[in-house]
């Protein structure tokens, strides 16, 4: 079924009429909330009326926040433009968009916590949904961008971002800004590389104006990864970075392992038991003042290698290799960072080693080497 859907997507990618009707990559209409409610549809900051925010449908306690507004002694700053929305308890925002049935899409949005409580957001496009935990702050300015992906079951998609929280203070809820979409073209393994999306080039939309990357949240049961081919295991996110804002070893994109052993990135590949394989990959730093001794641990089935990297925080990388004999028809390739690292210019931002250009090939004639 999957394959048929995929082929029909490929076919349709050449039919411009269908593409023209579906949503282009980038911000959703009023995805940055710069168009706000009329004065008569606001009570202070509280939005009155389901359709008061242009292009969106809201429900529950939603506030329209202007950058620079104060909450207690906290100054609320907005990443794109001058406005954002805040979702109170059980509040949600929804937008219906045209998509291509069968196609995979990734959503990227920026969110910030405003109170100390544990916050999460439930992002959904029926029947898919994902709860994104927001208790870890990865950027010190409070804002992080998150990615989530879905496969379109219909030719319209209702994107819903919902705050399932029940806090004592209804105004304690996350701020949301810059909701964007990108169609994904899941890559396939090739003759020269058994890994899909080896250079992380295919992935979620990255905002041209934000310099903090995009978090790929832990994706335990979700096979629709915003980073096609890859799963994020464990509890925390990995960061998706681009060459416009960071140093990346190869191509335009890479991942930064920002959460130590709490966040592993993995892919399962088909292997032939008894056959010898080589896994090669690049380990570096993103040129984001992430300094110090780092180690990336790579696993292939039962084999493992620790790759030390001395980072000066100014960019650079080295290549590493793990040679192994497959013991099963499926081998889990996995990476994590041994240590936690903080940026030297900003002790509240998590950072870590960069991983890129991951290649897996079978060694054709291992016997000849002996
Ligand atoms: C505006 O909010 C205040 C409380 O903050 C409330 O007393 C008042 O009734 C609200 N006005 C409208 C029109 O909802
Ligand atoms: C998230 O939202 C979807 C759609 O409303 C719902 O089906 C799902 O149960 C929600 N998940 C959680 C954990 O609240
Ligand atoms: C990026 O920033 C520039 C200049 O600040 C602005 O003109 C442009 O609209 C911004 N683009 C987006 C997508 O926010």
TrEMBL record:
Keywords: Cell wall, Glycoprotein, Secreted, Signal. It is found in: Secreted, Cell wall. This is DUF642 domain-containing protein. Residues 26-182, 194-360 form the DUF642 domain. Residues 1-20 form the signal peptide. It comes from the Eukaryota. It holds the Pfam family DUF642. One of its GO terms (cellular component) is plant-type cell wall.
């Amino acid at each position: 079924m999957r394959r048929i859907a995929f082929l029909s997507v490929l076919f349709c990618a050449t039919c411009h009429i269908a593409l023209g009707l579906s949503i282009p990559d980038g911000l959703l209409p009023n995805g940055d909330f710069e168009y706000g409610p009329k004065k008569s549809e606001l009570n202070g900051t509280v939005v009155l009326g389901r359709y008061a925010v242009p292009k969106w449908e809201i429900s529950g306690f939603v506030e329209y926040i202007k950058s620079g507004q104060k909450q207690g002694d906290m100054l609320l700053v907005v990443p794109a433009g001058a406005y954002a929305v805040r979702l109170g308890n059980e509040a949600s925002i929804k937008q219906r968009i045209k998509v291509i049935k069968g196609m995979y899409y990734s959503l990227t949005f920026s969110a910030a916590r405003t109170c100390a409580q544990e916050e999460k957001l439930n992002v959904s496009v029926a029947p898919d949904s994902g709860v994104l935990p927001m208790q870890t702050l990865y950027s010190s300015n409070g804002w992080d961008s998150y990615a989530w992906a879905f496969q379109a079951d219909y030719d319209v998609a209702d994107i819903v971002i919902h705050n399932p929280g029940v806090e004592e203070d209804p105004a304690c809820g996350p701020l949301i800004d810059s909701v964007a979409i990108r169609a994904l073209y899941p890559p396939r393994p090739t003759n020269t590389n058994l890994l899909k999306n080896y250079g992380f080039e295919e992935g979620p939309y990255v905002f041209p104006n934000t310099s903090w990357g995009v978090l790929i949240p832990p994706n335990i049961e979700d096979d629709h990864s915003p980073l096609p081919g890859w799963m994020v295991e464990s509890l925390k996110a990995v960061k998706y970075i681009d060459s416009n804002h960071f140093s990346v070893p190869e191509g335009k994109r890479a991942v930064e392992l920002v959460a130590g052993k709490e966040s592993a990135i993995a892919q399962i590949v088909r292997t032939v038991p008894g056959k010898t394989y080589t896994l090669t990959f690049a380990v570096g730093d993103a040129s984001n003042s992430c300094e110090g001794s780092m180690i990336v641990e790579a696993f292939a089935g039962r084999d493992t290698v620790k790759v030390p990297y001395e980072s000066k925080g100014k960019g650079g990388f080295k290549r590493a290799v793990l040679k192994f004999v497959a013991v099963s028809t499926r081998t889990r390739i996995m990476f994590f960072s041994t240590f936690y690292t903080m940026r030297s210019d900003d002790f509240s931002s998590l950072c870590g080693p960069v991983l890129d250009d991951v290649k897996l090939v079978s060694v054709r004639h291992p016997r000849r080497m002996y």
